[in-house]
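Q: What structure does this chain adopt?
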Amino acid sequence: MTSSLRLPSISQLSIREFPRRSLASREWLRLVAVLGAVSVDAAFLLIAAMLATSLRYGASASGNSTLLLMMMLPGYLFASLTYKGYSLDTLKRGGRSSGRAILALLTAAGFAFTAAFAFHVSARFSRIETGYMLVLGAMLLTFGRFFGARLLETARFIIDPSIFVLGDETAQLHGRQAHRVINIRRLNWTPSSEDPDFLDVVCRTFRHADRVLLVFDDPAERIAWASFMRLTGINTELLEPQLESVVPLGIGHWGGTPTLVVSRGPLSLPERVTKRMVDLAFVMLLAPVALPVAAILALLVKWESPGPCLFSQERVGRKNGLYRCYKLRTMRVDATDPNGELSASRDDARVTALGRFLRRTSLDELPQLWNVLIGDMSLVGPRPHALGSTADGALFWQAVNGYWIRHAMKPGLTGLAQVRGYRGATHSLRDIEQRVSADLEYVNSWSLWLDLKILLKTPLVMVHRNAF
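A:
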């Protein structure tokens, strides 16, 4: 509904124009704030354990509270992540932050006590010493979280969301502040899900945006942009929106004005950090085996047929940005398909003898560990598709409604669709519909446990009848 008040146009909006470098550095500062909170929590719990021993047995004595803490700490960190105790929205509120920390401490203590009884080692721990540790830990965590909230309150640049406004020259706005304004008329932008290059431009433009406000007077244009942004995985909201044909995800506020959330990224910052840490840990664990195997296979590829040992292709990554995806070359150089327009068939003449083995065992994907290491991909996520891939003659994004939503998360080496057996050529619409359905299920229900479950199932499907 258009307001009857005369509001300033988009060109009159008050803008706090931050350099791109400043917005990029703020993401690092946020990561430092989260990791700092984790480190302070761990340090305070260690201090609590040492003080508990001192109170129970004396300053020079040694007890078992530190050992109990080592049992509790992983559970505490995992519980804190589960309770969103390390999200910036929680950390900047002292009461909520300390409450989540104490709840995580009690959860971890419960699991540790259960494990101690199960392994018949509970007698080693003093109840009084343990009680001291929990009480002191709760007090120190409360102090640390309230103090941290005050620090974040003074660092508004870190915690305040960066707001980008997308609109036209005639859009009517409240006189609020934004970090950047994108005028679609000046840029000649038209929302199109048929153009991967345009999606890549949108991804790069809003890379450092926490919230994107759509501000259009024209209801049709407003709905068109809302429907388009819903495919991007970028947090997007409508200012005074028309609700027809738009499925809202929630209500937000901007300077006291209600907004309608039409798109939301699936993972919070702590969840992305956790997923990234798991990725790096697994890559480091696999590297001593994967690197020699990949090197030997690369030499064999080079020996079998002339040309480079690696094949790289532009594919769609998180938030529909483009990146280079690497594989061991499995086809003759003169027959490679740069855009992936022709899927490999079971007896494809383009595939070399070694390439057939690599594709059947999925070993051609080994170089994508490099993509995981540099952050373009994750171990688990929707598999990246070639831009020219088709199903029943239609490009994937034309064949499946909402296809672009699967790119709200990083593409993965493996995924839910793959462990369910959805792989190989896409001859029919059903082939790609099953995969996208599994990908969207993964995006909407992500958890660390789901990732671990998929990783454990992946070796069972690496050799597959549809891998050719």
